[in-house]
Fold:
Amino acid sequence: MLVVHVVWHDELLWVWARGEGASDASAAELDTLLGVLPPVVSGEARLTQARQRSLEIALRLPAAGRLEATTVPAVPLGPSAALSFLTRGLDDDGASCAGATLHHARAAAVLAARLAARGRLLPALRVGTAIAHARWEPAPTEADDTRLEALAGDQPPAFRCAVGAQVTAREALDGLVGALLDEIARSALTGHLPERPGGSPVVWRWLEALGDPSGTTPDLPTTALVAGRIDAWWQSSAPGQERAQLCLRIAEVPGAPTVGDDWPPEGSVANPLEGPGADDEPPVSSGGRWSVEAGLVDAVDPETYWSAAVIRGGVGPVRTRRGPVAGPAALLDTTLAGAARVWGELAALHGAHARDRFEVDAPALAEALRRHGTALEQLGIVIRAPRWMRQPSRLAARLHITSSERSPWSPGLLGASALVDYRWQVTLDGGDLTQAEMALLASATGPFTQVRGQWVSLTERDRAAAATLLERPGADGSGVPVVEALHAALSRGDELGDLPFDGMTASGWVAALLDGDLDLSLEAVPPPAGFSGVLRPYQLKGLSWLVFLERLSLGACLADDMGLGKTIQLLALLAAEREADDKPTPTLLVCPMSVVGNWQHESRRFTPGLRVYLHHGPNRTDADELAGRDDIDLVVTSYGVLARDVDGLAATDWWRVVLDEAQAVKNPTTAQAQAVRRLRAPRRVALTGTPIENRLGELHSIMRYLNPGLLGTAAGFQRRFAVPIERSGDDEARSALRALTKPFVLRRRKTDQGILDELPPKQEMKIYCNLTREQAALYRTLVDRLLSGVDSSVGIARRGMVLATLTRLKQVCNHPAHLLGDGSPLAGRSGKLAVLEEVLEEALGIDEKAVVFTQYAQLAHLLAPYLSERLGAEVAVFHGGLSRTARDTLRERFDAPDGPPVLLASLRAGGVGINLTAANHVVHLDRWWNPAVEQQATDRTHRIGQTKVVQVRTLICTGTLEERIDALLEKKSALAETIVGTDESWLTEMSTRDLRELLTLSADAVSDA
Amino acid sequence: MSTDAVSEPDLPTDPVLFWGSVAPLELGDASDGPGEESAVDALDERGQPPIELGGGGLRRELEAMYAVIRADAVARLRWLS
Structure:
């Protein structure tokens, strides 16, 4: 059997074949093999010559580890015959088979046909000697190019092994694909004579030749010009394939002291789009006349430049890396004509009376580059201009705050030294401008100006905005409180016009304040004698910080993690100021109702000398008398009472107002928040455990009270910070906001080094409980009932049904009696209860106390007597229905060593603001689906004062919705994000199918016991 | 058949590498996706051909030629594939 091979050589496809024993097929055998091929046409001149010359080819073939030149009989096929042969293939007669080279050639034919089928080809006119050729050439897309590259990579070297052939695989493949594509198009057009479209006779002769087998057309005097125009025209459709590009060189006109025609120097430009780098010495102004010159650059090597004068002078061929440019003058002219449609001035550079360059004023040039630069580049035109000309410099405004080098805390310096000076500074590309430089810029009239020997380009708007800022009365300030200076950064921000805010700098103690470098500027406040406890180092620093900010009349937000002792830092502040000569009047502290008693309790414990009045309950005194009382140090009230008594509480100035759990005023439209904003005091403190820096609404609302005006209006804050940060993740806005608020927010985390090294660890574990058979039966019934009815319900009815079922399922997981509410016995009917009993027994067995959180007060009441009996110990219930007095009493009893060892607490009532460090066991009986809420509850025990390892157990019924939702939360999926921080309404939006997956009881849920 | 020893470093001398192997045709997708435009469509985006070349008349003529070529090439692909 003969193996048929092909070789691409000299623009012909040579077919040869070899049989067993390296015996090559004879010419006669090859003729038989190839069958009837299309007749040789006149255009295939080389083929004719080749056949006349010889029907053999010299190849380099491997033999004994080297290549040997071997001449073999072969039939050369021109494109027409090659296409016919490759399309038809070999006869399936068993006498021959295709070698890898023939397979490769067929693949090339398929690619060529695909290009043609998709119209990825373009007509060209190639000028030869006395004759021109009309050709169809490939116009591959990037994807096509990738395919070609891949096919070339698989090409057998035997495909290009002709002696004398020095081609790469890709070149050989491109040659064959190009020839086949041209043939495919040409043969398709046979018999379709075009109409004469007008224009030059050369054009319609070219069109005719595109469909003619010979492909030739006479080389008329204008053929080269037309060829160039065709090339230029279709080059624009094949970006990346062009050989040369139009280049516009912009230089200062000759006559300038240091600038001549050669700037930018030819070939010195690494990136033709940018021109010389910023480090290059710019020219000196010579009156603002600039020249624009046209030329061509090599598309591959843009440093190679031919000026219009050279091209039109016909100095020599324009040879680019991709080959010679046919008709470079025509290409220059055609592309210039296109460019002139964008920038009309360029018309002077083309046409019959074309000039090589023209001159233009600086303003006109700047305007043209601004308006047309991008469009010209999109046309593939290279613009060589200095970078500063294309990219205007930016002016910006920066705030400088100057303060005394000495701390305002220093005795005797309070007052004047606490005041600062501020001024606005205009910056140019980040560097400060002197007044003289600014004046120079302001007086300049053209778009380009020299500053410190550097050319800069400025927009008129920037220049005007900077001048306005500096000339406006009151732009600077001296002897003002620092908050006013900082406020200037924002409130004046609206008056900066188009000038961007470029941050602020400070000197003296304000610098330390802004940098958050408190150690440098804080003078340590000694632990007050009236504080009966030990303040940890970070708490002392917090106290010093509070004192420091109050001395500056700045509001402070103490945002330490829960459990780090914000309460005692505040109490220490009250004690400290009473030891100084300040003669303070009462501080008003507003907090959630649930922690009113806690404040009293903690005050008794740590600052027993402090006279605390709880403004709470029906017998409370008249609010408007409180602020001036000299027998009270601290008035504690709740946000609810504040809203009711605001007229009285806001009637006079307080010494200080403290907002505890300040996130309570996060919504500025609530009655509570509005009431808070009416409270007047020169000293303002907010306490919160939530990271308000990340919650912009809360941040603004709290800061609005602490430091009025600092963050501007809600609408302005929304526009300047909230929208850019929350919608676009604008890091610049985030940094600016952080810089402005950092001095006023002190947040330490438990995990910070040196903060809580002494706090015992917290062990968190999940305990999976099985359902009893009774629980499982109830669970299944509820799920079945839901799934059978939910499809027929819509809207609110459907949501109500899902929510109700969800609640019931959680009740079943807790205990059947919780669902049924029938007062039936509890023992032995709930897997969770059994586990809870074990946990509590273990804790009590080692004399430790436990807090059990549930979201259902009803369940707490149900379990308390049962557990009390089982454990033989008192089990107390802490819930939202207790009066304040009852809560305080209960908490005090729980703290006492002989008090109840177990506290059943509702998550809402017991989860915030109280200290439960007497317990070191925490059990979460059911799930709230919000880890933050559960964490907050846990931290009631894991806080300062805790001396034992805290064990946190979360009970989860396996195989139920509890386990599945827990898994979703663990994955931190997008769905989990939806769950966290919201109620359970997300469940109601689930499809029936998803509900089924979430709720259906799995086989392993039931205990065998 | 005549033979002479030659030294051509650009081609492998290992026969297996030299002759290559017949691999299945892996040419990827035939098109770049729906809505792909032909090269003449792309030309059109850049405006009409220059007047000297015949302007809109040339473009219409080329469009007609492309239609013929594409139809014929689709038929040829069936033979080749």
Observations:
- Residues 1-9, 28-35 of chain B have pLDDT under 50 and may be disordered.
